[in-house]
Amino acid sequence: MGPQRAELLQKELGIFTFGDLLLHYPFRHVDKTRITPVAALAPGEEYAQVAGLLSPFELIGERRARRLTAQIRDKTGVLELVWFQSISLIQKVIQPGQPYLVYGKVSFFMGKPQIVHPEMEAWDPEKLRGKDFLEPVYPSTEKLKAKNLGGRQIGKLTAALITHLTERDLPENLPLKMRESLRLMSRFEAFRNIHFPQTTALYEAAVRRLKFEEIFFAQLRMNLLRWERHRFSKGVVFEKVGDLFNRFYKECLPFELTNAQKRVLKEIRIDTGKGKQMNRLLQGDVGSGKTIVALLNMLLAADNGFQAVLMAPTEILARQHFQGIKELLEPLPVEVAILTGTTKSKERRLVLERLAAGEIHMLVGTHAVIEDPVQFHNLGLVIIDEQHRFGVAQRARLWDKAPIPPHVLVMTATPIPRTLAMTAYGDLDYSVIDELPPGRKPIQTVHRFENDRSSVMDFLKAEIALGRQVYVIFPLIEESEKLDYENLMQGYEEIKTYFPEPQYWISMVHGKMPAFQKEENMRRFVTHDTQIMVSTTVIEVGVNVPNASVMLIESSEKFGLSQLHQLRGRVGRGAEKSYCILLTGKKLGNEARERMKIMTSTNNGFVIAEKDLELRGPGEIEGTRQSGALSFKLVDIVNDRAMVDAAKQQCEEILKEDPDLSLPEHEVLKDFLRSQKGKTAWSKIS
Questions:
Q1: How far, in Å, CA of 37 to CA of 410, rounded?
Q2: Is 66 helix (H, G, I), strand (E, B) or coil?
Q3: Where would I find the Helicase C-terminal domain in this sequence (predicted)?
Q4: What is the pTM of this model?
Q5: pLDDT value at 428 more than 50
Q6: Which of 379, 426, 499, 675 matches a 20 to 30 Å C-alpha distance to 163?
């Protein structure tokens, strides 16, 4: 292949090596194994392959109406061939009087079969069958097709490559026992049959084998990291449950913990007492009480003489955590401080001094806690809230703030479906709070169309008359900030006509506002100074206003499922019955209709996350990891769930028996992992 075309393949499809070409799988196969006699062609038949002698060409028509025709004749009849383009090229390349194999879409004109723009190749009449294999069709691009590198040409390259390969080039990487128990074909056979299978069954067996390999090694790498950490990583030891924890639990806890919260506390308690670094993902639905679990862990750290830090993605959320924690810990001798981007320099200096001296037990903050000047006396626990808002590199910087890496608890309120969690977070231990605290009333969710607007507004007025507060949310449309802003302003004006001042007061928050103004408007709503909060999705994460009882989401069809669920979780935080109203336009697509149906039928975040995964696929779900661990070539983790489970089970059995992969039968796994340069030595970061 010349340098120009090679460069184009690299740019367009990322194919640099023979290995890349081998991993460029066909997206379908064409069956050219059979030859159909002309007389057997029937109107219902889509594509067919015919063999016979080519008659002389005939040019018909003028200028634009010009077409080239010829006929293929076999023993049973005549098939018409027609070309409208590349006429002079066809006349040069194809020779009448010779036998050809012709393939294409069959149509009938005046009762006679014909193929327009057929695929043709020379044929040996001695051969009674077509090809010995199903012909692959490969993904290509317009630029490549222009340089004569379409799907068929890529097929020729792959065919040439496969004839040169032997089993030594593609050594087996799965243990024999595993292959036999799962009935998997050999690796070499799988690569041959995914490209050039003789039958559909062989193709399917090849796909199954290569899918399993893909998901199995992704799991193995993750689990190896986890086993390594469990065996070798050093962590600080929280030996005792001390006075602070016990006093808080008995005297200050505002409510009885749920069984799920107790179970998670116990898992964390065991982790932090082992002397190994804890790396745990804590997932709970909106309002399931993750923060109280986090606080109890911070007290555990303080009891053992260690400092703890809680990192939140936004200033509003950090302040809210700080206020909440400070109030709850009022009776205890615990020092809590806050550090954000807007902390005044004098105050910042004081916090930094006291932190380094060990006088502050707990620090709450935003990204500001990562910065270099922030030094701890002895950091023992890091809690990261809403983990998908922080990049891997940002989290890593907290590691360097202690000689022994601190324990890490990563919290997320976007429930992640189990399959996705196993695949994306296989290197983290995993806890779930799957029940809501008692006394939380389920939020009633309804779907209304635009023409119900005035009755919806009357309902909001009735709730405000009862002393409640209301959120009105407008969507953010990624493409255009300007359009977003105009939509919001238009919506705000419309809300003002329904709710005129001074009878009603409205707060507005959007992305273009200066931070201080945003904070002030939020504060006014939190302190019940305004009854209505009009906002874009800024309030999605964590804001707590127990008195807000209605969430109205405008143009709900523009939101994803998990986003709608997150927004709904902002209400229903007090004792009053709460409502979420999904307002949409009259015309809804099938997927939007399905989303409305799911939202009105369940409040369970895990059910919603599963549905979200089915509707949108894993690529778009927030918080599924920044490292691209999910970029599989063949595996679809929604449809291949059973295979994900099987791979995980095999992985765990192997590592339980042989964590170092040192047994002779596991040598093939070790060799393969070694050969995958740059893929295994991941940083040990949650």
A1: 66
A2: coil
A3: 458-614
A4: 0.69
A5: yes
A6: 675
